[in-house]
Amino acid sequence: MTDRPDPDDSPFPPCPFCETPVVSITSSGPHTHSARPCGCELPLADVQEIQA
């Protein structure tokens, strides 16, 4: 048994790199974005797709 929630049951979109649900996106510049809570760096195209 695991304490981690199943990503398929999440209302949040999956990270395109690690499949962790993306709860928020942090932007520290026009081309610098990271997914939270996993911390994966995201290109602008992925940010736009997640936010769509």
Written account of the structure:
This protein has 52 residues and is of the alpha+beta class. It has a domain at 11-37. Helix content is 15%, strand content 25%. It is built from 1 helix and 3 strands. The protein has one helix at 44-51; strands at residues 24-29, 32-36, 41-42. Strands 1-2-3 form a 3-stranded antiparallel beta sheet. A hairpin with a 4-residue loop joins strand 2 and strand 3. The longest helix has 8 residues, at 44-51. The mean pLDDT is 88.
Question: Descriptors for this entry?
Answer:
alpha+beta; 52 residues; 1 helix; globular; 3-stranded antiparallel β-sheet
- Helical fraction equals 10-25%
Most strands sheet = 3 strands, antiparallel
The proportion of strand residues reads: 25-35%
Poorly predicted tracts of residues: none
Number of strands: 3
Number of helices: 1
**H-E string:** EEEH
Given the C-alpha coordinates, what overall shape results?
A: globular
Estimate the mean pLDDT confidence: 88
Strand order of the largest sheet: 1-2-3
Question: What structural class do the secondary elements suggest?
Answer: alpha+beta
